[in-house]
Write a structure and sequence with these properties.
Blueprint (H helix, E strand, L loop, with lengths): L9 H7 L11 E4 L7 E7 L5 E7 L10 H14 L13 E5 L4 E5 L4 E3 H8 L4 H18 L3 H7 L23 H6 L5 H9 L1 H12 L5 E3 L8 E4 L10 E3 L6 E3 L1 H17 L10 H6 L5 H18 L2 H5 L3 H24 L4 H15 L1 H9 L3 H6 L30
Antiparallel strand pairs: 1-2, 2-3, 3-5, 4-5, 6-8, 7-10, 8-9
């Protein structure tokens, strides 16, 4: 690493890059609490009230190469290279600078937007219109890039000094316990590996999911709720604005994975609110959750229906799309457990329940739709209008309209 950014030298760095002037020497600097060993994130408020987010990748891969921020920069270049995708830029932050040598990226910061995970945590309400806006936004991204060979080729470009033979398939299971893994896994988490390996049907379902991975459009690949922002006055606007941030893992991928990741984030709100008591049966604990599943279900249904209404072509392309989304939801829950073990070194009773739900979603997706959504797949699809076959778009596509250009407050 040639340069390590900090709150002490970030202004000098921005001045040298031509992103701010001398008058910004005393600008406010706030290190985001989300900063971790992987990335350093600093919000800088400049004298002209502009706010920039400065990101630096600090965790290298096994080859000693920093490259995740390159993906975000490449996505920004894609939008610049292909004007037909121009409206997609409305859902993403504007990248203003990228320093590949030091793995530093500078983008605009949305000061008037809220982290959706924090919004739900603070308010404990789940308006379906927010879920609909998320799904419609994601569908627009997938639809605009669907089967676009020129976009796939563009995103295949590798960082300097690297080669990309194929795109990464995130539909992976848990490796078998080896002496190396045993040395790294905390004793509390060993039960997770034991339970996981007990179910051969679970490993087989994940293996089948990986085999059937169908990369056909640009995907975000990390659409957890903390990577989704809503406007602080979302309920006062003509249209509920949604922004998607942190595109470090974006690539050419399977749209069902993105949708499943979002659904899993909603289910985690319910599962993490369970009342844990060793004397209680699983079904009783699920029913006594602090955030009942019934409060989440309208948003779950709204996500699926809004997505399919905005992108009905995906059902003609993949008849089993909904089933695959449900399976990826289960896989995303397992990934959440893995992340908790890696970051917090914990695996408790609520995680056992989450693994149980994830297993059912993966090995019994059709039955799980009814138990999780409260309605059958047929009922969900019956509400999606005009599921007729849509012809492939012409070569000269029209701009994908995501929002009104001038969003205004209602009544203004």
């Amino acid at each position: 690493m040639l340069l390590s950014l900090s709150s002490q030298n970030v202004i000098q760095y921005l001045q040298a890059a031509g992103l701010c002037g001398l008058e910004d020497g005393t600008s406010d600097k706030i290190e985001l609490p989300e900063s971790n060993k992987k990335n350093f994130n600093l919000v800088v408020k400049l004298a002209d009230n502009r706010q920039l987010l400065v990101k630096q990748e600090r965790q290298i891969d096994h080859e000693g190469i920093l490259h995740e921020l390159f993906n975000e920069w490449r996505f920004h270049q894609l939008l610049q290279e292909f004007p037909v995708l121009g409206n997609i830029s409305l859902i993403t932050p504007l990248v203003q600078y990228y320093d590949e040598e030091n793995s530093i990226l500078v983008r605009s910061y949305f000061g008037e937007y809220l982290d959706l995970s924090k919004f739900y945590q603070d308010h404990n309400i789940f308006p379906p219109e927010i879920a609909q806006a998320i799904a419609t936004t994601l569908a627009a991204l997938h639809r605009a890039t669907f089967q676009g060979k020129e976009y796939r080729k563009f995103m295949a470009t590798a960082p300097q000094g690297q080669f990309r033979y194929h795109f990464y398939n995130p539909a992976q299971g848990i490796g078998s316990l080896t002496p190396e893994i045993l040395a790294k896994v905390p004793s509390e988490a060993l039960k997770f590996h034991i339970l996981y390996q007990r179910y051969e049907s679970l490993e087989a379902a994940i293996a089948d999911l990986a085999y059937e991975w169908d990369a056909c459009c640009l995907t975000h690949n990390d659409l957890t709720l903390n990577n989704i922002l809503i406007h602080s006055r979302w309920n006062q606007l003509d249209n509920c604005l949604v922004r998607l941030i942190d595109w470090e893992t974006c690539t050419w991928g399977d749209p069902a994975f993105d949708l499943g990741t979002i659904l899993a984030s909603y289910l985690a709100i319910w599962l993490n609110s369970l009342v844990i008591d060793p004397t209680m049966e699983l079904e009783d604990s699920l029913q006594l959750a602090m955030t009942p599943l019934e409060e989440i279900q309208p948003s779950l249904i709204a996500i699926l229906q809004a997505y399919l209404k905005a992108f009905p072509m995906i059902l003609e392309y993949r008849r089993d799309f909904v089933v695959k989304v449900i399976q990826f939801t289960g896989l995303a829950l397992i990934n959440q457990i893995k992340s908790k073990i890696n970051n917090c070194k914990l695996f408790n009773s609520s995680d056992i329940y989450m693994l149980h739900v994830a297993k059912n979603l993966l090995i019994m997706p059709e039955q799980s739709i009814l138990s999780i959504f409260g309605v059958s797949e047929a009922e969900i699809l019956s509400q999606v209008a005009s599921l007729h076959k849509i012809s492939q778009p012409d070569k000269e596509q029209q701009l994908v309209r995501l929002y009104y250009e001038n969003t205004r407050l209602r009544g203004c």
